[in-house]
Amino acid sequence: MIPEGMQDILPDEVAQLRGIERAVRGRFAAYGYEEVRLPVLEFAQTFERLEDDTLEAGYRVFGEHGRQLMLRTDLTVGVARMAASRFRDSALPLRFSYVAPACRPWAPQRSQDGEFVQAGVELLGDDSPAADAEVVTLLCDVLAALGLREHRVVVGTMAFSAALVESFGIGDDDETALLDALHDRDYPLLETILDNVGVDDEARRALQQAVDVSGAREVLGHARRLSRTASMEQAVGRLETVRDLVAAAGHEDALAFDLGLFQDLTYYSGVVVEAYAPGVGLPIATGGRYDGLGAHFDWDVPGVGVALSVDRLRVALEEAGVPLAVAPPPLRFVGGLGLPEQTRELRDGGLAVAALPAGAEPGGPPWLRHDHGRYELAPADGARVSGSWRDVLQALGLR
Amino acid sequence: MRLGIALGPPRRTATAIELAVRAGVPAAALAGATLPRLIAEDGHSVLLARPGDLLTLCALDALDAAVLGAEELLERGPEVVELLELEAGGARLVAASRRRGATAAAAAQDDGSAQEGHVGLAGGATRAGGLPGTTSGGGRLPRRPRVATTHPWLTRRYLEARGYQPRLVELTDEPWPAGHLLSLDLVVGLLDDGDAPEPSYVEVAEVASGGLRLVAGLAAHALRGAELAAFARRAGEAVPS
Fold first, then answer.
1. Mind listing the domains of chain B with CATH numbers?
2. Contact state of B59 with A111 under an 8 Å Cβ cutoff
3. In chain A, whose CA is at the least distance from the CA of B53?
């Protein structure tokens, strides 16, 4: 019926997702992020220029002039492209938000649907740790506002491991291969590469210790002790600043640090963040700093952002027992299709009304039936009412 | 603790269970089990199951951690955090050909066309370069060998790196019996260190080898990292020196 990995989202689920999106949008707006809507189709080249397997592995179609188009695989790239083409002369920083679907090939082993909704923010034009902290704070704020309590927001940095591997002096190609294996968490391959390039035991230990650094705020002290170069110390110092700012904003309890945390997408360059909640194995939010991304669109501005998976958030809230929004069923008005004035009066009064032809079967309450000038109302709860139109309005609290 | 232990070659599985018990997880009742089984006791859940299932359950945060072979991490590229290399439970992923069938195939194909159509896989003058670990008289292997394997990614990568274009038959359990039923050029399966394939097979190459690893799901690592670190410490101490 539908392609593998795609889903029909039904009314009760849509109501739950809309409730989540409403809450998320509210927090995004509270931090000054303005919502944008981006095209679902981009030129394939927009993603190909990043040379990232995940971003390039999208559904492709040809435009009417033969250009290859792609259903977007990522929103951050789209925002960077949009900002570079339309906000180049604007004062910085820029703050954008979005709640929109993206598509990637279906990966059931990763619980990855072919289409998924991301709610995210992008802060462009500020390369300070304070900007990193704002995004992390906003993420903590959103999760708290949704009612999650046992979640964890994990912060790491790509810069620490990059500086550590650079200190090995093993050449660019081996450095890239080593970092790729590290980022993929492919530890057996990592060991093979370390063997092949002849890294000494001390360096090997340092790498192992670095990726093992994870836990609460005190682990950053440990990370500082592991630092072998100024670049590594700088990376830890930045994390410490982020930690202090997020803590000052009141979100320290949710915070953890992990120097073994990496992101799959290659545009991430500095601080990275993920959020986890019990019962959801994969991150409910991912993000980080991507200072080189703008340069792919000839506008070299720094950027940092985070995107929440709305679908995984719904699972997390269900697992946590947080009540999800439920849309009240519409009042089914039998005979309402032939009574536009009455139907309008109900709708103007704030009721959702599904008008049905005379004689139709209304199903379960709530319903309203018109028959020869008389009305019978079966509310969602409470006793039935029979009488005039005035009686109906009174029973519904509209008069 | 919700721990998964991988079903695999018998000594490796027994080692994994023993390590779990020494690390304080009530897994003793799993000893000798050959089918998936779940134990829930003293606040612990221990699942004995196929490695792929354990990784799926880790990814869904249904398990906190799993003990499985290093080759499974290579094969599946899972999104897990490796907590510890246990330095125990060594096993080998071995390529073998059927002794009688291989000889017959070699006889049938030994028509002087080897330089064009075939590459020798095993022994003597026909040994192919870059196939370490080949043993005796497996005959010639076609360029497009038909291979039954439990580890398709590793098998493909290994054979392609040596110039073959394998046609893979993917099996989920021990592949050795299938070799008696299917017309195959090779069977690739996992064996405990020190073991050889059953007598009707000739080992021709070692595709991969390694010991047990303790891994954690991403969410478990983020949410219950301290508990997992303590378990990893105990598991590390449980390994006989």
1. 2-90+211-238 (3.40.190.10), 91-210 (3.40.190.10)
2. yes
3. A109
pLDDT tens-digit profile of A21-42?
A: 999 999 999 999 999 999 999 9
Query: Taking CB atoms and an 8 Å cutoff, what residues of chain A touch B73?
Result: 186-188
CB contact under 8 A, A276 and B223: yes
Does A281 sit within 8 Å of B62, measured CB to CB? yes
Test the A interface: residue of B79, B228, B233 with most A CBs within 10 Å: B79
What chain A holds in terms of domains, given with CATH numbers, is: 11-319 (3.30.930.10), 331-395 (no CATH)
pTM: 0.81
Closest CA to A311 of A16, A42, A12: A16
Mean pLDDT over A334-345 rounds to 96
Whole-number Å distance between alpha carbons of A357 and A369 = 10
Cis omega (within 30 of 0) on the bond before B145?
A: no
Q: Can you read off the two tokens belonging to residue A97?
A: 């938000």
Set of chain A residues whose Cβ sits within 8 Å of the Cβ of B219: 276-278, 280-283
Three-class secondary structure of residue A299 per DSSP: coil
Q: Which helix (H) or strand (E) holds A317?
A: helix A310-319
pLDDT tens-digit series, residues A278-288 = 989 889 999 99
| Residue keyed to tokens 């110390």 | A233
Å from B156 to nearest chain A CA?
16
Starting at the earlier edge strand, list the strands of the sheet with A60-62: A41-43, A68-71, A60-62
CA distance B140 to B138: 7
What is the identity of the amino acid at A120? Answer: G
Alpha-carbon span B175 to B180, nearest angstrom: 10
